[in-house]
Design goal:
The protein has 294 residues and is an all-alpha fold. It has six helices and no strands. It has a domain of 35 residues.
């Protein structure tokens, strides 16, 4: 309930009840007058009641200020916590980005390692395949050599087959069988000796051939070295040729000039010839030399 005029409140934000308590004596008197007029009873207000009202007002103001201060402190603390949370969230995003980049880097390194390992395995397989191919080529060559040997010694197989297939009537006598056996043994021994001799000769021929190859390779290397030295000397001579030509040309010019000077002095002739004109000097000296010889 508001009494009196609409006076402005010195404390903004408070209710009309606070404005009512600001002038307790006047407002209480007004209330008392109204009640006396309406009810016919008298109401007295003591100074203790007004003082208690002021004390309550001050307490409420103090509580309001403390509440505002507490709210401000809580708001400041809330802002601080929000800032800390924002910083932590930013750090979390940065760490997540770093973790993602680190994970990508680890995946890239792992992929490079796998690629390198696959490349090494491929190189090993290629080397193994090349080795197997070389072994196969070696075995093929050995097979060809053995086939040639089989064809070479096939005549002995045919001979033995002819001997075995002969009728038993040819060996009616034991002495004939014995003689035939001895003949076969001698023939086998001769064949083995002949084969051994051919083998030794073949090995000797191989050794001689290797020695001949080594000797010829050494000679070829020596010839190549000499050829390189001759080429170097030829190139050096080609490089020195202009120097020698210039030297001899200068010597000839100097000799012609000296001859020209001596002839000119001896004949006391005054020939107007340039010093650098060697051909002109020689053409003037030649007639005088011929006259002196005659």
């Amino acid at each position: 309930m508001v009494l009196g005029g609409s006076a402005p409140s010195p404390y903004p934000g408070h209710s009309p009840a606070s404005r009512e308590i600001q002038h307790p004596a006047k407002e209480l008197n007004s209330v008392c007058n109204l009640k006396e007029n309406s009810c016919g009873r008298e109401l007295t207000v003591t100074e203790d009641d007004s003082q208690s009202s002021l004390i309550q007002l001050f307490k409420k103001k103090k509580e309001a200020r403390e509440t505002e201060k507490a709210m401000a402190e809580k708001e400041e603390a809330f802002r601080g916590r929000m800032k800390v949370i924002a910083d932590r969230w930013r750090d979390l995003h940065a760490k997540r980005a770093q973790l993602k980049a680190h994970k990508h880097e680890e995946l890239r390194i792992q992929a490079l390692k796998v690629n390198s390992k696959q490349r090494e395995e491929k190189m090993k397989k290629d080397g193994e395949l090349l080795r197997v191919k070389m072994e196969l080529e070696t075995l093929r060559k050995k097979h060809q050599k053995l086939c040639k040997k089989v064809q070479k010694y096939s005549i002995f197989k045919k001979y033995l087959e002819d001997v075995v297939e002969e009728p038993c009537a040819a060996f009616e006598d034991i002495s004939e069988v014995t003689s035939q056996y001895k003949l076969l043994v001698r023939t086998r021994k001769d064949l083995l000796q002949s084969q051994q001799g051919h083998k030794q000769l073949t090995e000797q021929d191989k050794v001689l051939l290797e020695q001949y190859k080594v000797q010829k390779e050494a000679e070829m290397l020596q010839y190549k070295t000499e050829l390189v030295q001759l080429k170097l000397r030829f190139y050096q001579a080609q490089g020195d040729l202009p120097l020698w030509e210039a030297h001899w040309l200068w010597t000839i010019k100097l000799a012609i000039h000296n001859l020209f000077q001596s002839t000119n002095t001896r004949l006391q002739a005054e020939w107007d010839v340039l010093e650098c004109s060697s051909c002109r000097q020689l053409s003037l000296v030649e007639p005088s030399q011929k006259e002196e010889q005659q």
